[in-house]
Amino acid sequence: MRSDLLEVIKETLLNLADDLRSVRDEKIIQGILKSQLSLKDINLDERVILRSEEFPEMEIDLLGDDFAIELKVNPRFYDGVGQVLAIRELYGIETILVQIWRELKAPVRRALERIALRANFHVVLLDLRSRSVVVI
User: Is 133:126 a contact under the CB 8 Å cutoff?
Assistant: First the structure.
C-alpha cells in the first residue's frame, strides 16, 4: 500500500473531523470522502459490487484503480475486518479499513492494531472527540 495514499486519507479525515461530528449516515460520509479525495486526484467509485464466476458477490464502499476503502461509522471494533480480508483474498484488491468513532478507546485501538498487523492490512481510525487520526 502506498504510504502517500494513507497520508492523504489521514489528512482528509482530519480536515473533515468537525463536519463529520453531526453525520451518522455511512453513505453520506462515503460521498463526502469520495468528493474530498477527488479534489486530490484520487478518483473513487461508490458502493461497487465485485463479481466473479468463482466467488460470491461482494460490495465495497469506495473503489479506486488499485485499492478500495471499507468505511464504518461508530462500529463494533471488528466491523469491516472480514470484508477487508475477503476482498483482498478473493478479489486481489488491497483494502483500507476506515473507522470513524465518536470516541476511540485504547482497547479498541490495540485490538485493531494487533489484528491489522497480523493480517497485514491497513486501518485508519478517526476519533471525532479528540479530532485525531491513527493509521495502522
Answer: yes
DSSP the chain: --HHHHHHHHHHHHHHHHHHTT---HHHHHHHHHHHHHTTT---EEEEEE--SSS--EEEEEE-SS-EEEEEES--TTTTHHHHHHHHHHH---EEEEEEESS--HHHHHHHHHHHHHHT-EEEEEETTTTEEEE-
- pLDDT score for 71: 97
Those residues of the chain that have pLDDT short of 70 are 1
State the Cα angle at 104 between 96 and 114, rounded to 5°. Answer: 55
pLDDT digits (tens, 9 = 90+) for 75-113: 999 999 999 999 999 999 999 999 999 999 999 999 999
* 104, three cell numbers: 476511540
Quick one: pLDDT at residue 1?
A: 54
* C-beta separation of 84 from 70 below 8 A: yes
